[in-house]
Task: structure prediction
Amino acid sequence: MATNKTPEFLPGTLDMLILKTLTRASNHGYGIAQYIQKVSNEALRIGEGSLYPALQRLLVNGWVEAEWGISETGRRVRIYRLTAGGRKQLAREVAEFDYLIAGIARVMEGA
Amino acid sequence: MATNKTPEFLPGTLDMLILKTLTRASNHGYGIAQYIQKVSNEALRIGEGSLYPALQRLLVNGWVEAEWGISETGRRVRIYRLTAGGRKQLAREVAEFDYLIAGIARVMEGA
DNA sequence: TGCCAATACCTCGATTGTCGATGCCTACAT
DNA sequence: ATGTAGGCATCGACAATCGAGGTATTGGCA
Result:
């Protein structure tokens, strides 16, 4: 009934998740989304309408680099690789995220 | 200390924080923001441009009720009180939040 | 007295991020 | 031949946050 406009996703964390995913291995867009969805136990679903704009952001900021290639299944893919700047950015985002989560936790626990 | 550029706020969590705050005591808008900021150790700053629209949302949805009154300091204030529906909504939001955070944690820990 | 900071309410416009839909193309299986 | 899944991407709608602005009252201080 209604009204399930489930957030699906915690806004503002997508870039961090993508960067983190790329620390394990370079990957193409679709594969990144699949990985996140699988590892998160289906809790996080990255729609393509969120994914590709996010990758564009990361490219523009220089956090990742892209290269066209061919996947194992023979398809044309754009492979993203984390840059040195991307690693630093990830560290920053993780720090910020942990900081905010800690703040939220304090409120929610009613310390 | 607080970061300077884009400390921001974790989007999508404001309603939950407000509802949670009101479980401790009815309060007025400004007081709610102060409480969250203080308890979170200054990690969360709720701007008034976010606060009041959020309270409107909660009112419209019936999660809170409002009443005009006078604060201890003698000022005209609008006091918000959690409704039964608000309690249920809070439970829902907490469940969703925990679910998403768990998903994020799995990705970030690279299980 | 005059002034200003803090309290307290609220609105507006700009910006950003996510979502659903759509479109295109290729590989593979039925 | 047809459909399903992989893969890229963009578009417009929508919602939430942010900064700035506006009003008003209280209390302190010079």
